[in-house]
Amino acid sequence: MKKIAILSVVTAAIVAGAIVxxxxxxxxxxxxxxxxxAPAQPDPQPQDVDSNPKPQPTPPVATATPAxxxxxxxxxxADSTSNEATNSIRKTVDALLAxxxxxxxxxxxxxxxxxxxxxxxELQRRATENPNDASVPTTLGEALLNKVRAMHDAGVTDxxxxxxxxxxxxxxxxxxxxxxPKNWEAQYVKASSIYYWxxxxxxxxxxxxxxxxxxxxxxxxxxxxxxxxxxxxxIKQYQKMGKQDEAAxxxxxxxxxxxxxxxxxxxAAGK
Length: 271
Known about the structure:
The protein is an all-alpha fold. It is built from 13 helices and no strands. The chain has 3 domains: 2-65; 83-181; 196-271. The protein has helices at residues 2-25, 44-51, 59-63, 67-98, 104-113, 116-129, 135-153, 159-179, 184-193, 201-218, 228-240, 244-257, 262-268.
């Protein structure tokens, strides 16, 4: 910005100097008093002729202003701003990839700030560059689901548009599980999201089986707070399918393992 300001000042100074120069070239009438004597009348004419051509070569001075130079320096400023925005999105995506199983609040803020599309674009780029990193398609799938939620909250009710995004999200979870079949987050989000789909006997049964298998896998892993979410999802899935006994049995088991989980406590209280 300082460089642009300096160039602007220099440009203005050169233009002003050219104007002054042209004004000076327009003030040679001092020979006019010589024209008052009869013998000198022929002389002023050559002087006038000599004085007139002098202003003619001056236009290049006026047109040689470095105004284009100021225009040339403008793009770097825009590029700098663009680079800052790009770097900010990349840092955000880095944070999302690092926050395994704890991304809900981050996605909510991104939706509020209108940055979901930029994050999705960056994740798509990384998925192409890093096809063997299961965390990237997993997070991309979550981002797409959060876009579905944000669009729905904004009043978009077109089932085709929302359905396409949901299918794209499911495709990303499948891609992640092809790379890492035991990826906890991809398994959980893929299976738990089925609860929000229209009822379908085969699909709902598959979701319940996936969640039950994930609970078995959790038993072989070091316990993490987010593992309680798998029980919550399975209980809700059983309730959706009308299997109240299975839902109640899952809740009892969940309370034994995660007695302080707020969501499970609310379920146990009938809320």
